[in-house]
Amino acid sequence: MTEVKKVTEPGETIGLLEKKRPEGNGTMADMGVSQAELVEPRGDAGRKLPQYLAALAATLGALAAGSMLGWSAPVMVKLTDPNDTSYDFDVSKTQGDWISSVINLGAAFICFPIGMVMDIIGRKKTMLLLVLPFTLGWLLITFGTSVGMLIAGRLITGIAGGAFCVTAPAYTSEIAQDSIRGTLGSYFQLMITIGILFAYVVGGYTSVFVFNILCTCIPIVFGLVFFFMPESPNFLVVKGRNDEAREALVRLRGQSYDVDSELNNLKYKHEESQRNKVSYLAAIQKKTALKAILICYALMLFQQLSGINAVIFNASQIFEDAGATIPPTIATIIIGVIQVIATFISSLVVDKLGRRILLLLSALVMCVCSTALGVYFFLSETHGSTADIVQAISWLPLVSLSVFIIAFSLGFGPIPWMMAGELCLIDIKAFVGSTAGTFNWLLSFTVTSTFNSLNAAIGAGQVFWMFAGIMLVGFIFIFFVVPETKGKSVDEIQVMLGAEPSSHRPEDKK
């Protein structure tokens, strides 16, 4: 038997089971290697700074995606103005709606195939290749000579942005130690919100041409920075490139870290998964896989049906109704600042408070805020905006809007994207992450394109009450179904999803 040492607590070691184990002993490792899991010494030694830098470099792609998402808010107001000279052609309101929303279709289209691509060529190469469509899309938008070119450019940037929504969370979850996995995972949503704020500020106070040029530079800067980051050690082990995996771990953890112990664990789990390999169909039919898929899809559903788009669409009206003499441009910037600050706070506390408590708090507060907004709009529609009862609560929509955005940014903004990386094993992770991303973008397109019609059909108050009801259901679902994954290893998470505890853990034999 070959024995290696694994540090568990300072000064304590235990024997690690030999790499070759008897066939047929089912364990959590049989189910595959988790991209979210890099088994580490329990003392949690090792340098954290290289991991933070790698995660920030990876999520510069999310910054590019955020600028793409925020682009339409300051730009479409200008383009649909008959007197605007940003382009040599006119843009109608209907065409503007298509230009704004077509990114959702591009993102939905790419989410599934990009999962397979990153499993074939790697996370790093996939993200670097995405610089090309991002740059091409922005060039089409910048130098467009027709509405068709703008739509094509937005579609292509949507494809690149949607791909980053799958690849960046997967990469950051794979390079992180358990103790900071949640923090690094939340960087994705943080950079998205910073990109949106960048679009609100720069797009509101520069020409469309200058704004487009700056947006074009962001993915290029990402490519230059991320080029020097290591590939995921987990992916390298799966591909049999163990020397490169060891080198990547040294770069991410430092020379003093017990790299060989972690590398042996990764190799061991991969070998076990290969010896006990099951068909893909069988993998997704396991009880743990089905529960993970249910949770991932449900969180995406509740995120998009939370009413976040409805709140943002009504932001200018809410500011106006509250008696705030704030120009629309400033109002959108205020919203962007609130999102960034709240998401940053979430990144600081997600590994301390946990995912579950933040999701529960987020759902409950958004439910209350949506109810309050529904009351305000219902009374305004019923009695008129000048009625005494409406004037008496003119402060309510502004407060509800601000608290709603804070609650969303703390929980339902960042956490659904990181859960696929934590709940799913490697044999189904690409499938679940990509299809959940597709589902999310299609829901976003549906909500965005139908909100105005729904608002006109049943009234703004009733729409917000509907969103409040959905978040109440979301709160109940999270309370009874979603496990807490804070600081948990892949085996521990799988047990919480219903798997049998392993009776042959590596620590059991010496």
From TrEMBL:
It is a multi-pass membrane protein. Coiled coil: none annotated. Gene3D superfamilies: MFS general substrate transporter like domains. It holds the Pfam family Sugar_tr. The chain crosses the membrane at residues 52-73, 98-121, 128-145, 151-172, 184-203, 209-229, 292-313, 325-350, 357-380, 392-412, 424-443, 463-482. One of its GO terms (cellular component) is plasma membrane. It is found in: Cell membrane. NCBIfam families: SP. Belongs to the major facilitator superfamily. Sugar transporter (TC 2.A.1.1) family. Trehalose transporter subfamily. PANTHER family: GH07001P-RELATED (PTHR48021:SF1), PTHR48021. This is Major facilitator superfamily (MFS) profile domain-containing protein. The lineage of its organism: Eukaryota, Metazoa, Ecdysozoa, Arthropoda, Hexapoda.
